[in-house]
Every structure is written in structure tokens, then in C-alpha cells.
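Notes, p. 3: input format for complexes.
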Amino acid sequence: MFRSMERKRLERKRRQEGRLPPGQSLTLKWPVLHAGAVPGFDPSTWSFVVGGLVERPFELTWQEFQDLPRTRVQADFHCVTTWSKFDNVWEGVSMRTIVERARPKERARYVIQHCDGGYTTNTPLEDLLHDNVLLADTHEPEPLTPEHGAPLRMIVPHLYAWKSAKWIRGLEFTAHDRAGFWERRGYHMYGDPFREERFR
Ligand SMILES: Nc1nc2c(c(=O)[nH]1)N[C@H]1C(S)=C(S)[C@@H](COP(=O)(O)O)O[C@H]1N2
Ligand SMILES: [Mo]
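Output follows (200 residues plus molybdenum atom):
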């Protein structure tokens, strides 16, 4: 009872602040949502592969990934199934760090995220250069749990959450936009929650 009143109050507040996208409602919980099974994680065999249209393709072990400079971001999270979770604090490695290291070629305009289990999703390269886009291994105050994407997930706060791939294992830079898992099934190629770009 108290919790549902508190939820409504916060939802009104976020709407007034202009932070609740149209058609969304605020959740105080953190739903788990994905297609398929939660993959296992073995730090001795895990790697992160960056390739495609880049000057310097590279592959990092889990230890090498841990040694990259770290960043922390506070951001909202909007799932296309209409829940929004506010003020998440994520920690991990800024996408800028990864992109600067890879040095995209002139022709690179899009990035496909590749995950354990085969999930993929596409975004324009420039969207991944926003200040608050990161590869996160922590949702403060805890490390990510397996069902939320451990050991590593993408976080792209300004797009619907299906663009924030869990169990991410690599990035492919491309010249042309290529539909990922949900995009092939009718989801929008871009996915701006404030414009309700749910389907196409
Ligand atoms: N690998 C993978 N990542 C994924 C998905 C998925 O099915 N597989 N689902 C996406 C969707 S639709 C959402 S809403 C968020 C949910 O993240 P959460 O389970 O941590 O809330 O993960 C996204 N990332
Ligand atoms: Mo979602």
C-alpha cells in the first residue's frame, strides 16, 4: 500500500521533471528481461573482441578489461515493455575509451553489439560516444548479477533498454545499419524512448 503510493508520487515527479517518456511507468523494482538462457562466465576463457571497420582491431582478456580506466554514470533505464527505472548508478569502462583505442575508419557509422548466446543490437556509432554510455560490470552498490548481464553489459541510457546488451562479448563497426535480434523482429532501428520509437 505505502509502496504503491510512493511509486505514484515518484512517477508524477519524474513526469514533471520531463524524465518519464510517453507511455512509460516508473518501477521501483528491477525486472529481468531477455530472450533465451543466462550464459555462464569463465574468466579464464572470456574475451572482448573489437573489429570491423577500425584501424586497430583488438581482443582483451577479462584481466586486461579490468585494467582499463574506469568511469561511473548515473542514468535512467527505459524498457520498451513500458517500465522505467530511474537513477541507476553504473560503473565500468566508458565507450569512448574503447572507441579511441580501436580508431574507427572514416566509413564506420554504426556498431553492432555481439553477446554470448547470439543476441545482437545495432546503434549509430555517434550515439555510443555520448558521455554516459559505458560497458558496465557494476550496478551500485553491487557487481552485476548474471541475470542482469554479468560479467559485462552495455548501457546506452538515451535509447530503449534493448540497445543495452547483456553478456556483451564484442563490437563490430560497420558502414551500414544492420538490424539486430529485436530489430529484425520489428523493433525500431534507433529506439528513442522520448519519441516512442518502439516499432517500425
Ligand atoms: N544479451 C541480451 N541482452 C539484452 C536482452 C536480451 O534478450 N539479450 N534484452 C534487452 C532488453 S529488451 C532489456 S529491457 C534489457 C533488460 O535488462 P535487465 O534484465 O537488466 O533489466 O536488456 C536488454 N539486453
Ligand atoms: Mo526491453
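The chain has one domain: 21-28+45-195.
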